[in-house]
Amino acid sequence: xxxxxxxxxxxxxxxxxxxxxxxxxxxxxxxxxxxxxxxxxxxxxxxxxxxxxxxxxxxxxxxxxxxxxxxxxxxxxxxxxxxxxxxxxxxxxxxxxxxxxxxxxxxxxxxxxxxxxxxxxxxxxxxxxxxxxxxxxxxxxxxxxxxxxxxxxxxxxxxxxxxxxxxxxxxxxxxxxxxxxxxxxxxxxxxxxxxxxxxxxxxxxxxxxxxxxxxxx
Length: 217
Known about the structure:
Helix content: 40-55%
Number of helices: 9
Structural class: alpha/beta
Number of strands: 6
Order of helices and strands: EHHHHHEHEHEHEEH
Strand order of the largest sheet: 3-2-1-4-5-6
Low-confidence stretches: none
Shape: globular
Radius of gyration: 17 Å
């Protein structure tokens, strides 16, 4: 039984990862690193520091703090300039219903301006707590993002359910010792194997969430 639902944003609430990935592909190409969308999907959930470090390490390079900041700013600029995203159909109405019975939070690896712009546009007045990639020292797969959300919500771990779609996000939730379900939006379900339950698409995930019985408080 749960009293709190904690959602990842990109790929769970918004169909936004292609736009994120394209911005990263362009950003890295400008410093001589060639990647494709799937490279970003596979490390989705990490904050900008994690994404940059992982891609640089794969290329046999190391990014200093000045480079990290330069790439972070450039990626955000490209994302906001060519943003082409939308919420998953029916999710807003579902969350309005769930809000009556559950505490709702978001834990995202994206920068605060990006997270706020998307949630303010598509999910206004829905979430009690919003954690962005800039709000933590250690991004996903570290447990810190989800533990911080739980701390601010003031609830117990065992009463929280995480909804993810990224391998690093699932790892973060499980490393925090949380129950986690996942939807395979952009990656194969095998890469989400640590989740307690995996849904192939949003329709069955939403049916599952709608059927949850809230914990009496």
